[in-house]
């Protein structure tokens, strides 16, 4: 059973997500928070697997709440899906740096929401091509340091891991990477996980930033 915590200051939005997720036999809503501070407290108390986190909330916002949850060793297994609008949204990068594992749009459909919760609960990061474009917009318009990464050089990656990293940076899923490189999805995922381990990054989203900031993939201009 996937234990989900809803964090949003709008009761109608929480009710909508609860209705969608409660209909699934493998998902259980274990709590609702109206602000970031309450989200952190409930994450600790309810031992949620996934927190569906709004960014803009009164008091402590979703970015700070994400940062506190990600920094708490006792909550190491908690994954955070941040609600954002992607385009021209610097909060995408802020949420990534805080430790978010995925991004969803406010207008997400029911099937996509359910899929996202399952993907993140399984330990994968959810970074769609649309979210990738949001990250690229940030890197292009505001160059500077991204999420903290180790000093491990890309030279430590195998040629296959480099190829996989490039495809991750373009927003491809494990299935799509496997198709392009003639690998099984499981093998593609293994290469992704090895690249994350060697580069010392938290998840797939941070891999994208590393790929662009290292120069392995160029940020498109114009």
Please describe what this structure looks like.
The chain has 222 residues and is α/β, with parallel strands linked by helices. 50% of the residues lie in helices and 12% in strands. The protein is built from ten helices and five strands; from the N terminus they run βαβαβαβαβαααααα. It has helices at 11-22, 36-46, 62-71, 91-98, 110-121, 129-141, 159-169, 174-181, 185-199, 204-213, and strands at residues 2-7, 27-33, 50-54, 79-83, 102-104. The protein has a five-stranded parallel beta sheet, sandwiched between helices. Helix 3 packs parallel to helix 4 (91-98) and helix 6 (129-141) runs parallel beside helix 10 (204-213). The longest helix is centred in the C-terminal third of the chain and has 15 residues, at 185-199. The chain starts with a strand and ends in a 9-residue tail after the last helix.
Mean pLDDT: 83
Quickly give the structural class: alpha/beta
The share of residues in extended strands comes to 5-15%
Strand neighbour order, sheet with most strands: 2-1-3-4-5
Number of helices: 10
Shape: globular
Biggest sheet overview: 5 strands, parallel
Q: What is the chain-wise order of helices and strands?
A: EHEHEHEHEHHHHHH
List the uncertain runs. 143-151
Percentage of residues in helical conformation: 40-55%
Q: How many β-strands, per DSSP?
A: 5
Spatial separation of the terminal alpha carbons: 46 Å
Radius of gyration: 17 Å
Which helices and strands appear, and what pairs or packs with what?
Elements (H helix, E strand, L loop, with lengths): L1 E6 L3 H12 L4 E7 L2 H11 L3 E5 L7 H10 L7 E5 L7 H8 L3 E3 L5 H12 L7 H13 L17 H11 L4 H8 L3 H15 L4 H10 L9
Parallel strand pairs: 1-2, 1-3, 3-4, 4-5
Helix pairs in contact: 2-3, 3-4, 6-10, 7-9, 7-10, 8-9
